[in-house]
């Protein structure tokens, strides 16, 4: 497929930054044959998975998100009163049946710990939910209880999700709790990737605080394609390269420009190719086009906040597995959105968190 040129015209909807409330739906049991009109999720568990996944043991299939109905300009809003409720609303949409969840910190300073979690979560047919160091927020607890989730994988160390969080999960009926946490963000990322199924292609992003947004934009495509998303350190890229090779990766999409992942960090990666724009919004668009080139539906699009302070919404939306555009309050963001609609048309657009669509 030739990569289309994005160009600007009038978009069919206006985008604003706001926050709308939504409520959780009613849980349904997992099923052997999910209903027509919904995604079917089948977990793939490695022998190294530290939690007991009921679905892997029983060969269970799960009902996932509704499939697009083919209607033009369809809008789905997934938002809550706070970031925890937004993550729960995303989980209810994408994972209405679940035995397992992945829990990450909802605090901005720990955002980096979970950047590689979305592909693993989707491979487990599990949503990404948010917690805090010492508590399980109300919306997170409600999802776990309503769905009778029995296994939770914590991502990050005790400073991100402490011992009290694990105890609270057990009080909610979770019987299998385990943690993935390395000595630093890069080792945590490699440990998550090691639990992924093998893949021929991988995605690499900077682990530096100023460039984390690039990994968020790549998480949806990586999750849909069941491919690893790995953080690479400019000063020591060899462990990342080894982790990708161990999963069978032979080609790599590098997210963002050289100010994020330095040229010298590319050399050891398997067949690296950059996807980068002039800013975070342009980079997200390049990653989205790359994902369409590799098989994702261009008319089933996710809008996530690209503004610092709301990036966590994109983290929770990654397991939905959709091409993702970041939305902000700058002209370049709107230019990218308008160009996308002009090039690909508009089918279903799912807006999460602080992004609202005013049609």
Automatic annotation (TrEMBL):
Keywords (alphabetical) are: Signal
Q: Does Isomerase appear among the keywords?
A: no
Region forming the signal peptide = 1-32
Q: Cite a single Pfam family from the UniProt record.
A: CW_binding_2
Q: List the Gene3D superfamilies hit by this protein, alphabetically.
A: 3.40.50.12090
Enumerate the transmembrane spans.
none
What InterPro entries has UniProt attached to this entry? Bact_Sporulation_Assoc, Cell_wall-bd_2
Q: Which PANTHER family match?
A: AMIDASE ENHANCER, N-ACETYLMURAMOYL-L-ALANINE AMIDASE-RELATED
Protein's name in the database: Cell wall-binding repeat-containing protein
The organism encoding this protein is Kineococcus halophytocola
């Amino acid at each position: 497929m030739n990569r289309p040129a994005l160009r600007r015209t009038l978009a069919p909807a206006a985008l604003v930054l706001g926050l709308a409330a939504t409520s959780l739906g009613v849980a349904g049991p997992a099923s052997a044959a999910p209903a027509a009109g919904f995604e079917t999720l089948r977990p793939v568990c490695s022998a190294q998975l530290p939690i007991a996944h009921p679905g892997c043991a029983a060969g269970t299939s799960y009902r996932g998100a509704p499939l697009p109905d083919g209607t033009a300009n369809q809008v789905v809003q997934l938002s809550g009163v706070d970031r925890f409720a937004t993550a729960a609303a995303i989980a209810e949409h994408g994972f209405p049946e679940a035995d397992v969840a992945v829990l990450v910190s909802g605090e901005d300073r720990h955002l980096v710990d979970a950047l590689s979690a979305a592909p693993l979560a989707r491979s487990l047919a599990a949503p990404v939910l948010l917690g805090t160091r010492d508590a399980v927020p109300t919306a997170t607890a409600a999802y776990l209880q309503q769905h009778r989730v029995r296994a939770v994988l914590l991502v990050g160390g005790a400073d991100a999700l402490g011992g009290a969080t694990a105890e609270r999960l057990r009080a909610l009926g979770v019987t299998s709790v385990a943690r993935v946490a390395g000595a630093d963000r890069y080792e945590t990322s490699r440990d998550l990737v090691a639990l992924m199924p093998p893949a021929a292609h991988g995605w690499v992003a900077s682990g530096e605080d100023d460039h984390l947004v690039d990994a968020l934009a790549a998480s949806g495509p990586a999750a849909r394609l069941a491919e690893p998303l790995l953080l690479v350190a400019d000063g020591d890229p060899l462990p990342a390269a080894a982790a990708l090779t161990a999963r069978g990766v032979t080609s790599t999409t590098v997210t963002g420009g050289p100010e994020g992942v330095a040229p010298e960090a590319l050399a050891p990666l398997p067949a690296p190719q950059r996807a980068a724009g002039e800013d975070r919004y342009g980079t997200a668009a390049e990653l989205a086009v790359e994902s369409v080139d590799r098989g994702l539906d261009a008319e089933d699009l996710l809008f996530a906040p690209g503004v610092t302070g709301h990036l966590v919404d994109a983290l929770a939306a990654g397991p939905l597995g959709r091409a993702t555009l970041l939305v902000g309050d700058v002209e370049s963001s709107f230019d990218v959105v308008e160009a996308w609609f002009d090039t690909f048309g508009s089918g279903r657009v799912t807006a999460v968190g602080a992004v609202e669509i005013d049609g």
